[in-house]
């Protein structure tokens, strides 16, 4: 696993996409091999929408990833979540290519 690995979400959605589940499964397998590690799951949004809305959306995204990891057998006590909404874009730009990269969940090792 690489620190800062990420998964991506569809516009205005927070469910883990089918094409992203493999990444979550890799995270779960890595966490099982490293039982003392704790991680923070960051939820991010693109620039569209209000600050408040995107903070809530980022929170739902982070919690969705957390729920998927817990469903894979990871102890919830090892997982924390935080939402940055649209405050920390990975890519600058006001186009679909940039927005798609900014709608993400990021796993950060504590």
UniProtKB/TrEMBL annotation:
It comes from the Bacteria. One of its GO terms (cellular component) is cell outer membrane. One of its GO terms (biological process) is cell division. Keywords: Cell cycle, Cell division, Cell outer membrane, Membrane. Pfam families: OmpA. PROSITE patterns: OMPA_1 (PS01068), OMPA_2 (PS51123). Its main location: membrane. Signal peptide: none annotated. It is found in: Cell outer membrane. Coiled coil: none annotated. CDD domains: OmpA_C-like. Residues 1-110 form the OmpA-like domain. PANTHER family: LIPOPROTEIN YIAD-RELATED, STATOR ELEMENT OF FLAGELLAR MOTOR COMPLEX. NCBIfam families: Pal_lipo. This is Outer membrane protein. It comes from Oceanibaculum indicum P24. The lineage of its organism: Bacteria, Pseudomonadati, Pseudomonadota, Alphaproteobacteria, Rhodospirillales.
């Amino acid at each position: 696993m690489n620190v800062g690995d990420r998964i991506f979400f569809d516009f205005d959605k927070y469910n883990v996409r089918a094409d992203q589940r493999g990444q979550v499964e890799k995270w779960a397998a890595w966490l099982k091999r490293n039982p003392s590690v704790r991680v923070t799951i960051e939820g991010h949004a693109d620039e569209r929408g209000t600050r408040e809305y995107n903070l809530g959306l980022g929170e739902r995204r982070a919690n969705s990833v957390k729920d998927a990891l817990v469903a894979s057998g990871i102890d919830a006590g090892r997982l924390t979540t935080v939402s940055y909404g649209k405050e920390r874009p990975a890519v600058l730009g006001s186009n679909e290519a940039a927005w798609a990269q900014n709608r993400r969940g990021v796993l950060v090792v504590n």
